[in-house]
């Protein structure tokens, strides 16, 4: 999959794509339905996704708490796994002032050269979100691309939404989130240099930031980990702590992951950490020895859970 960020510089081989359009935060089952509708609309055309960066909500409501389920890297990784050929990651500030008609003409038609555009039923576009799905169909006829409205998607009788997924993650219910997502909720990013306390405790961890993301319930999780880059690329089971590490004073929230049966250095590589099951809340212990004993219990429980988890 190739990522393009400038609608004025689209290579010829990307033109004529059929594309799903939206924010795709979390790339959940509803988003997948839109993508599969796009794939079916023109099976022989390149498959694209048109999305926006930063997320429009971050621009219009900058003081809101972090809400994103996925950052750009995680979203791109997920779309790549779904077989998307082109990710058109449009700079939101570039398209923000465009009227619905100008967006359809300058971005989708002339810029990206789409042959077909697929959206969900609630899709809005253009300045002040004034454009509707019906407007997109009308503009498509004018500017040379077809349009399709994908159906609403449900799971277990519930309409799939990013809001429902955020609630499950906030409450420490990663399996329920996975039911709506169609995959494990993942936190992706580079491994950062930390305090190296885990190494001193006998549990060296890979530390990653969760800044800008909707925070999971703070606590310890059984996790599955993909090392995406570097000489140790591969997949491991593990246990991860999400939170502020109350044993060691005030800290910025992050995720620290211990990989089972792993030997090596993953600093500055990129990891993808899938939250599988919530084990216990974050807590302060009365001493380091108590903490170490609890970490041993956490890892044993995580191993047992993950041995039975595909």
Describe it for me?
The protein has 310 residues and is α/β, with parallel strands linked by helices. Helix 1 links the parallel strand 2 (18-21) and strand 3. The chain has ten helices and 14 strands. Strands 1-4-3-2-5-6 form a six-stranded parallel β-sheet, sandwiched between helices. The chain has a six-stranded antiparallel β-sheet with strand order 9-14-11-12-13-10. The protein has a two-stranded antiparallel sheet with strand order 7-8. Helix 5 packs across helix 6 (133-143) and helix 7 runs antiparallel to helix 8 (174-181). It is elongated, with a radius of gyration of 21 Å. It has two domains: 2-153, HUPs (Rossmann fold, 3-Layer(aba) Sandwich), CATH 3.40.50.620; 161-307, Riboflavin kinase-like (Elongation Factor Tu (Ef-tu), domain 3, Beta Barrel), CATH 2.40.30. Belongs to the ribF family. Residues 180-307 form the Riboflavin kinase domain.
Report the top-level CATH class of the largest domain.
Answer: Alpha Beta
Could you name the CATH homologous superfamily of the largest domain? HUPs
Residues in β-strands, percent: 25-35%
How are the strands of the biggest sheet laid out side by side? 1-4-3-2-5-6
Rg over CA atoms, rounded to whole Å, is 21 Å
Quote the average pLDDT: 92
Structural class: alpha/beta
CATH architecture of the largest domain: 3-Layer(aba) Sandwich
Helical content stands at 25-40%
Count the beta strands. Answer: 14
Q: Give a quick account of the main beta sheet: strands, pairing sense, barrel closure.
A: 6 strands, parallel
Please state the overall shape, judged from the principal axes of the Cα atoms. Answer: elongated
Query: What's the end-to-end separation, in Å?
Result: 26 Å
As an assembly, this protein is: single chain
Order of helices and strands, N to C?
EEHEHHEHHEHEEEHHEHEEEEEH
> Spans with pLDDT under 50 lasting ≥5 residues?
none
Instruction: Briefly note the CATH topology name of the largest domain.
Output: Rossmann fold
* Annotation field: number of helices: 10
């Amino acid at each position: 999959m190739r990522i393009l960020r400038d609608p004025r510089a689209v290579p010829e081989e990307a033109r004529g794509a059929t594309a799903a359009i939206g924010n795709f935060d979390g790339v959940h089952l509803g988003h997948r339905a839109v993508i599969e509708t796009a794939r079916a609309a023109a099976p022989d055309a390149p498959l694209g996704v048109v999305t926006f960066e930063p997320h429009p909500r971050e621009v219009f409501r900058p003081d809101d708490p972090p809400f994103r389920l996925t950052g750009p890297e995680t979203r791109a990784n997920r779309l790549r796994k779904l077989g998307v050929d082109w990710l058109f990651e449009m700079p939101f500030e570039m398209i923000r002032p465009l009227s619905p008609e100008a967006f359809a003409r300058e971005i989708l038609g002339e810029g990206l050269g789409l042959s077909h555009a697929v959206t969900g039923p609630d899709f809005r576009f253009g300045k002040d979100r004034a454009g509707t799905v019906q407007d997109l169909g009308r503009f498509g006829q004018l500017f040379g691309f077809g349009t399709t409205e994908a159906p609403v998607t449900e799971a277990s009788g519930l309409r799939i939404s990013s809001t429902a997924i955020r609630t499950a993650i906030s409450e420490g219910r990663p399996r329920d989130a996975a039911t709506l997502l169609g995959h494990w909720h993942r936190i992706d990013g580079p491994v950062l240099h930390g305090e190296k306390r885990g190494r001193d405790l006998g549990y060296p961890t890979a530390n990653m930031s969760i800044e800008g993301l909707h925070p999971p319930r703070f606590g310890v999780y059984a996790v599955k980990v993909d090392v995406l880059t570097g000489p140790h690329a591969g997949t491991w089971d593990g246990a991860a702590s999400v939170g502020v590490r109350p044993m060691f004073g005030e800290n910025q929230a992050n995720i620290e992951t211990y990989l089972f049966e792993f030997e090596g250095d993953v600093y500055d590589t990129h990891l993808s950490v899938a939250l599988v099951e919530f084990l216990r809340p974050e807590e302060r212990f009365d001493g380091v020895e108590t903490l170490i004993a609890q970490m041993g219990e956490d890892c044993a429980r995580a191993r047992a859970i993950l041995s039975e988890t595909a």
